[in-house]
Amino acid sequence: TANLGIDSADDVSSTATVSGSFPVSGNTMTFSETDAGTFTIDKQGSVSNPTVGEDAATIAKFSANAGTEDALFEQIAVNVDDAKDHSNYQLWDNDNNLLADGARSGDLVTFVISPGFEIEEGDTENFEITADIGGESAEDIMVAVEEAADVMAIGGDYGFNMNINIDDYDE
Fold first, then answer.
1. Strand ranges (DSSP E) for 44-144?
2. Is the model's pLDDT at 70 over the cut of 90?
3. What b/e readout covers 35-53, taking b as 16+ CB neighbours within 10 angstroms?
4. How wide is the angle at C-alpha 109 spanned by C-alphas 83 and 168, nearest 5°?
5. Is 5 helix (H, G, I), strand (E, B) or coil?
6. In whole angstroms, what separates CA 106 from the centre of its chain?
7. Residue 103 β-bridge partners
8. Cα 162 from Cα 166, distance rounded (Å)
9. Structural contact between residues 99 and 91, judged by C-beta atoms closer than 8 angstroms
10. How far does the chain reach from its first CA to its final CA, in angstroms?
11. What is the mean pLDDT of residues 60-81?
């Protein structure tokens, strides 16, 4: 258990005058040892080499698994080498439904899935990322999820962020 408190006005650093009744403390909270649900992103299959000028070319395929509880998949950010060379990034589900348009910042392309994509506990769903291809011919387009924090999935049991595993898709 824990709570936050301030023993006296002297414990507050400020240019303002601090006054009030001390000590003061917040509610006592109890922590649990409940494990967060696991959400795993894996690279899925291979992608054929797109050509310069090709529209809606598949540049990445991945799967998402809700291992230990239902998941609401809300966001993924992928690193795309030379992302500025390409445009119109889109995220699709396995049924060819458009889930989100990508927003590019440098080489990071972020997809915010609203209202979220539901994946039931134990299920795996497949996804594709497409883009209109620019750049120069013979260039490889490398796509990866570089940080677990680049993926957001909310667990169905407790409504908190899930433990994200990207071990098979971080290069």
1. 57-66, 71-80, 87-93, 98-105, 108-119, 124-132, 143-144
2. yes
3. eebbbbbbbbeebeebeee
4. 100
5. strand
6. 17
7. 110
8. 12
9. yes
10. 40
11. 96
The burial of 19, by beta-carbon neighbours within 10 Å (0-12 exposed, 13-18 middle, 19 or more buried), is given as exposed
What are the φ and ψ backbone dihedral angles of 95, each rounded to 5 degrees? -95, 15
What's the pLDDT at 171? 61
22, exposed or middle or buried, with CB in 10 Å at 0-12, 13-18, 19+? Answer: middle
- Residue 154 pLDDT more than 70? yes
Nearest to 166 by CA among 144, 150, 148, 141: 148
Amino acid type, 116: G
d(CA 127, CA 84): 22
CB 171 within 8 A of CB 144: yes
Looking up tokens 């490889």, which residue turns up? Answer: 140
Task: Tell me the pairing of strands 38-43 and 163-168.
Answer: parallel
CB-CB contact of 93 with 117 (8 Å): yes
Q: How many contiguous H segments (helices) and E segments (strands) does the chain have? A: 0, 12
* Token pair in block for residue 146: 């570089």
Query: What is the residue type of 104?
Result: R
